[in-house]
Specification:
This protein is an alpha/beta fold. The chain contains eight helices and ten strands. The two termini are 21 Å apart.
Length: 275
Amino acid sequence: MTGSRRLAAVVVGVDASQASRAAVRWAAGEAARRDSALKLLHIDGAAREPESEQDNLAAAGIAWEAEPGVPTEQEVKSGGIAEQLVEASKAAPLMVLGTHGFGALRGAPIGSVAAEVAGRAECPVVVVRGLTSSGRGEIVVGVDPSGDSERALIFALDTASARNTELVVVHAWHDSVLEAGADLASVEASEERALEDRMTIWRDKYPGVGVRLEVVRDRNVARALIRVIPNAGLIVIGSSGAGLGSTAQSLLSRARCPVALVPHRHEGEYGRGQA
């Protein structure tokens, strides 16, 4: 993303863990693609600790090594880690977190903090996990017929456009709700047509993004998303904002790449996201 006006800063949660360092590197790359600044946010707990400024300085060095052209901001706050991160999400276009490690509240696993924040945040949250954290590889997004995944689809399209990479749109369906003897081939063909029809308007809005559609019969949505592209650069799903669902929990435990959770109410940053 380039232009005369920088977008609001991408926010990344900082601590001393290896997972946090991976998150900082990923967030710096994303800030560069968005032409935005990067905010390094350290949450201290009840009182400020001397390690906080050191952690932020170390994170700033990692960000500079990854993307020297991205300006960084540093902030240290006191309070509950999850609560402060959720509060910060209200003004952020994107929040990036590591998946494991220890936060500033010594002894509090960042994995549980990341899960809580990802389930409650008001902006998209990317949890950087697994082996594929460089930002390369296809973008995979899970969609469903309800329309609740629309914001996730817009986020995924914007991300694929910014990275000049292919978007793989996955719809997982299963036969447990069908009548006995139903023609599964016909049902699958119908699901494929419905997804193709739904994507027509988005292909028109994003003509530069290569889009591949995958309709998969699998009642385990997380498994379907992981299997379609085992080496994906990012998996994107929608989030209700009221806690993690089973699909999100499974992805955050099993995916080999970063996972983005996009609240259903999220409006998007790039201006093309209204159907």
